[in-house]
Amino acid sequence: MKLVRYEHNGRSPQVGLVVEERVIDLSGVVPSMHALIALSADGLAVIQQHAETGQSIPLDEVKLCAPLQPRRNVMCLGKNYADHAREMQAANDEPIELPKFPVIFTKATTSVSGPNDPIPFDLQVSTDIDWEVELAVIIAKQGKNIPAEQAMEYVFGYTVLNDVTARDLQRQGKQFFKGKSLDGSCPIGPWIVTADELPNPHNLNVRCLVNDIEKQASNTRNMIFDIPTTIAYLSRGMTLLPGDIIATGTPDGVGAARTPPEFLRPGDVLTSIVEGVGELRNVVTAV
Ligand code: MG
Question: 49 exposed, middle or buried (CB, 10 Å; 0-12, 13-18, 19+)?
Fold first, then answer.
């Protein structure tokens, strides 16, 4: 299933199911995406049945919102593609060294935005706004000390995420949080694809384009720490909750590692694509 949150006719965001080019309204069935994620397998079967009878609206007549507004920070992997780890270390004159353990940081809940929302650009805040396309995992159920062999049972689904980064802020304090958490710096969507539709999330092409010019092109098979390893690591001694979002890291080709470095400017169109999941299109907009 492709699950969305959408606005239509001025109503606050509703939950819907996308079938072909139409959105089926699920607001009479579940009040929120969090409620939908909490449903049992039987509950999800009811949603699927609803697809045949529910009222529908053409997809191009709705405004898609972030499919999920997380309750706590988005958890992210840094340096989880070897080529990206190397390009950043080279750009920062650091020794080339691949991580031995997952590198985890977070993005504020307030950074999360929709698949077509503008990326705010404020010269007073940052001049070095960069792109990082990523596959994101949505956690299905509460778990702690999850063995890697069982970790995929904890995956509800997947979405596309761009871990938009203010590199100048990221460098200032040597901590990622501030530079990763500006408003609108975490577009996600356009929907959550449920895990059953993507039996192998470790062989998906991942691409990022700026003004239709390809900047990043890789495949999720190149992740250093795969999804089960990441879930097992994160959940060790730390409870994961339903609706948690985990961004699995970005491949090489980010702006900061280019010669000369490239950053986004107002008017730039950022396209983020994960094969089998979907596409984001966000325009950088001066504020
Ligand atoms: Mg990232």
Answer: exposed
Q: For the whole model, what pTM was predicted?
A: 0.97
CA of 191 to the centre of ligand 1 (A): 19
Q: How far apart, in whole angstroms, are the C-alpha atoms of residue 136 and residue 30?
A: 23
Ligand 1 centroid vs 141 CA: distance in angstroms?
24
CA-based nearest residue to 141, from 35, 30, 37: 37
CA atoms of 95 and 114, how far apart (whole Å): 37
Structurally, the chain folds into a number of domains equal to 2
Q: Which domain holds residue 14?
A: 2-64
- Please indicate, yes or no, whether residues 96 and 184 belong to a single structural domain of this protein: yes
Question: Tokens 């200032």 map to which residue?
Answer: 172
What pLDDT, on a 0 to 100 scale, did the predictor assign at position 44? 83
Contacts of 130 (CB under 8 A, 6+ apart): 164, 165, 166, 167, 254, 255, 256, 263, 264
Confidence of residue 47 (pLDDT cuts 50, 70, 90): confident
Distance 270 CA to ligand 1 centre (A): 15
Q: What's the one-letter identity of residue 11?
A: R
